[in-house]
Amino acid sequence: EQAPTGFKPDFLWGGATAANQLEGGWNLDGKGLTTAEVVKKATDRKVFSMSDVSKESIKEAIADKSDTNYPKRRGVDFYHHYKEDIALFAEMGFKSYRMSIAWPRIFPNGDDAEPNEKGLAFYDDVFDELAKYDIEPVVTLSHYEMPLHLTQKQNGWASRSTIDDFLKYTETVFKRYRDKVHYWLTFNEINSTTFGFIGSGSVDTDLSTTDEKLQLRYQALHHQFVASALAVKQGHEINSEFEIGSMLARTQTYPATPNPEDVRAAQDADQANLFYTDVQVRGEYPEYMNRFFNEHYIVLQMAPDDEQILREGKVDFLSFSYYMSTVTSNQPAGDDSVGNMTFGEKNPYLETSDWGWQIDPIGLRISLNTLWDRYRVPLFIVENGLGAVDQISEDGQIHDQYRIDYLRKHIEQMAEAVKDGVDLMGYTMWGPIDIISASTSEMSKRYGFIYVDQDDEGNGTLKRLKKDSFNWYKKVIASNGIDL
Ligand code: BG6
């Protein structure tokens, strides 16, 4: 078949957010605490702090009833501003909006006998509002916001019984929103689970060795793989039209030199990234992981049916986030963090964001081709964007040309990948409205087309303001990606 020359007519242009960074209303209408709401704001903007949660820090967080040290509790108050915010998305011409449901709004403790009707009603209102403007919701079922109670009771995903709690929640929302939501994602950046607390909801700071931590994290991940596969099956039984995808934090890596040792190290790093989608798209654990498991003394506890469950619960499409690329060397200079869950060396050919993330639009084209070649399922870019400090100019406007440049270059490469023959469903850039950063909980790390008047301490009117990029994106969508 001839490769298409442009984006499909029904290409899903839009933006993406997560409940815990956006909604606020953390203790309203029966909602329980999420795991994200006990992660303290980082003291250093380059540090990925979402793994450093201990039993003590959770106790401290629960005793603290304010949002001062826990900005994800306040978000940007979408809970009360959703009509205004969705109207702004509609003004830009959004075809889709990726959002997550905060699981503890529906089941405050995760193991409650009945769902919380007020939580369900809130998302009904949000979906109805989106429907008014023909914006298709793309719903992440779990985006770093498990009910905290499940951590306290059974150490989160480390426990197999969390699968049942999750499936009760997914059944509830699949049924409730059967006719309102068509696209679902199971776990946001499922690879985050092997980086610790924020993905696994499991405390492991009390374990002394790395291998012990890895044992716990890969077991937690296995439970998520099973839960995801069962949710895919459950969703299709509830509505055979549902399209349910997986979600990976894609890290494109390059060998530091043509030395075969570096090339092999980069291949290894790439497999370590693609392992997750190998399981979720192909429906089985890849052989290369056996070696990794052996070398780290990891023994996965599997129930007799698990392999069959994985085979029967393959996802319909693969979605991923893409922010940066990295470099892999056989002799790493140091454990250099270059982004969320991304480690590696500096690339002399690339510029970085103020947070040290290496900006690489061509890497997006490379990743799209790699994923398409390997899996042959539709792809969906559900996060991409630039975190930057925005200033309000004397004219009262925000001239964020740097953001426009970043997005334009990535969309250009996306168009190239489509010409290469990649089947691409859509593009929901990250954070169309400024929200709290996942990694550092800063407000000043902004991604949006829409500015929100709030500072890192939570001061501000929460007033929404259009940046220059707002009208630019509107034009991009109106021209289906031609007018960049
Ligand atoms: C991804 C997450 O890792 O990157 C989002 O799925 C997150 O939740 C995004 O916000 C950008 O990261 P940060 O740390 O700049 O907010």
UniProtKB/TrEMBL annotation:
Pfam families on file: Glyco_hydro_1 (PF00232)
**SUPFAM superfamilies listed in its UniProt record:** (Trans)glycosidases (SSF51445)
EC number, as in UniProt: 3.2.1.-
Name the InterPro entries on file: GH, GH_1_N_CS, Glyco_hydro_1, Glyco_hydro_1_AS
The source's domain of life comes to Bacteria
Keywords in alphabetical order: Glycosidase, Hydrolase
The UniProt entry's sequence similarity note says: Belongs to the glycosyl hydrolase 1 family.
- Report the protein name in the record: Glycoside hydrolase family 1 protein
What organism, scientifically named, is this protein from?
Lapidilactobacillus mulanensis
